[in-house]
Write a structure and sequence with these properties.
CATH architecture: Roll
CATH topology: Nuclear Transport Factor 2, Chain: A
Largest sheet: 6 strands, mixed
Strand content: 25-35%
Shape: globular
Strand order of the largest sheet: 2-1-6-5-4-3
Radius of gyration: 16 Å
CATH class: Alpha Beta
Helix content: 25-40%
Structural class: alpha+beta
Distance between the termini: 42 Å
């Protein structure tokens, strides 16, 4: 008889998850400086529209401008996996939906897949890379609907 090993979350995985949750919180609260501080000095982001910000100061500057000139949507997230590549490098895979300003519903056209590379440093865990990829699922509207339904359940809709 095969024994089943319970799916346990390690202390390190929960620290990585907390970092991701803080990232989402900083975005939703429009805290550009705190958002940038979650990254390595030379970390970078690739935004939903393909915009690349390289380094903490560029991330901070870019988000400062975004938050100053745009009402941004709120992220609703589902973490799909957290994997260690080694003792110091982790990958986070999450799906996100966005609730536009003035709305109470997720806009399926803004769903995305987020990938993070997280590194353990002497100062704790920091993000090396955040990439947002549109989850448009070309030619598969049922996949868009399924993801949106999952995100709505997370959001409580």
């Amino acid at each position: 008889m095969e024994s089943v090993v319970p799916n346990t979350i390690t202390h390190t995985e929960s620290q990585v998850r907390a970092l991701y949750d803080q990232l989402i919180h900083c975005w939703n609260e429009r805290e550009h400086t705190a958002f940038a501080e979650l990254f390595l000095h030379d970390g970078y982001t690739i935004g939903f529209d393909g915009t690349v910000s390289n380094g903490k100061s560029q991330i901070n500057q870019h988000l400062s401008e975004v938050f100053q000139h745009h009402q941004t949507a709120l992220y609703i997230s589902i973490v799909r996996s957290i994997r260690a590549l080694n003792d110091s490098v982790w990958i986070v895979h999450a799906d996100v939906g966005m609730i536009p300003p003035g709305s109470k519903e997720i806009n399926p056209k803004l769903n995305a897949v987020q990938s993070l590379v997280v590194m353990k440093t002497v100062h704790g865990f920091r993000i090396a890379l955040l990439q947002n990829t549109p989850a448009s699922f070309h030619g598969r509207p049922e996949a868009v609907e399924q993801l949106t339904n999952e995100l709505n359940k997370t959001y409580g809709q």
